[in-house]
Design a protein that fits this description.
Helix 1 packs across helix 5. This protein is about 70% helix and about 0% strand. The chain has a single domain, classed as N-utilizing Substance Protein B Homolog, Chain A (Orthogonal Bundle). The protein is an all-alpha fold and about 140 residues long.
Length: about 140
């Protein structure tokens, strides 16, 4: 797994735990730190970006995640989407397909059998409409 892939996985861990514990992922990161991990900067960048844009990200998920209310969506899927949407919409240096591919891989490894297809579908719609979003 690439350094950025490891960073996404770690960021997902923090976001998931934050959802369960009612804290912010950045607070959890500060409590634990990332030690000497080479991907620590990207973990912090992902968490900061998701936190900064969370209202807009959650609005987009609510709009394009057909058939799922944000609160009823599995927390792991919700946070995979948050990371990927942040990368697609606000990380201009990253190719959209890499963000989608990584999100699908995380969903396959960590969520339900149907999650990867669902995440792919939601992200596909968002990428198709990306240029129409007011950010």
């Amino acid at each position: 797994m690439s350094a950025r892939g490891k960073a996404r996985n770690l960021a997902l861990d923090f976001l998931y735990e934050a959802d369960l514990r009612g804290k912010t992922a950045l607070d959890l990161l500060r409590e634990r730190g990332t030690g000497e991990l080479s991907q620590g900067d990207y973990v912090q960048q992902l968490l900061s970006g998701v936190l900064e844009h969370r209202t807009k990200i959650d609005e987009i998920i609510t709009t394009y995640a057909e058939g799922w209310d944000l609160d009823r969506m599995p927390p792991i899927d919700r946070n995979i989407l948050r990371i990927a949407i942040y990368e697609v919409l606000w990380e201009s240096e990253l190719d959209d397909q890499i963000a989608v591919s990584q999100a699908i891989e995380l969903a396959q490894e960590l969520s339900t059998d149907d999650s990867a297809k669902y995440v792919n579908g939601v992200l596909g719609r968002i990428i198709a409409l990306k240029s129409t979003f007011a950010l």
